[in-house]
Amino acid sequence: MAYDETDQRAIARSYDAEYAVIRDPSGDRAFYADLARETGGPVLELACGTGRVLLPIAREGIPCVGLDHSPAMLDVLRSKDPPPNLELVEAPMTDFNLGAGRFRLIYAAFRGFQHLLSVDEQLATLACARRHLAPGGLLAFDVFAADPARIANDRAAQVMRVRFRHERWRAGVKVSDEATEIEMRWFWRFELEHLLVRTGFALEAMYGGFDRRPYDAKKEMIVVARATG
Ligand SMILES: C[S@@+](CC[C@H](N)C(=O)[O-])C[C@H]1O[C@@H](n2cnc3c(N)ncnc32)[C@H](O)[C@@H]1O
Question: How many helices (H) and strands (E) does the chain have?
Answer without folding.
Answer: 6, 9
